[in-house]
Amino acid sequence: MTDADRELLERADSVAARAYAPYSKFFVGAAARTRDGRVFEGVNVENAAYPLGICAEKTTLGAAVTAGVRPGEMEAIAINASPCGGCRQWLHEFGIERVIYRRSDGEIAVTTPAELLPDTFEF
Length: 123
Ligand code: THU
Fold this sequence. Notes:
30% of the residues lie in helices and 21% in strands. By secondary structure, it is of the alpha+beta class.
């Protein structure tokens, strides 16, 4: 893992403290870096109507898109947890080169969206 990726995972770890997760108490943070070095962060945001909650990866990518970032412009995303199935589809959509995340056993995985979700749905 590169120093830049390690730093990105540290950003994900620390932003996780700002997650709004009063129901699951599972605090997720993510940080994505664009090829030109900008970093966007996000956390999971839950809701009393449980299915309405959103994952940290989605708030992160939403922040990046709001700032004008488009698919193909992100080099890496780091998450302090294993990305769920739906988020894997999001990672694929944005063509993120590398995904760094912390497995539940604490081990750090460095992988790609294709490895996380093979034979992906394409519109
Ligand atoms: N969660 C994420 O933020 N990202 C994932 O990829 C896995 C799950 C959140 C959703 C929910 O707020 C909590 O973790 C428990 O599922």
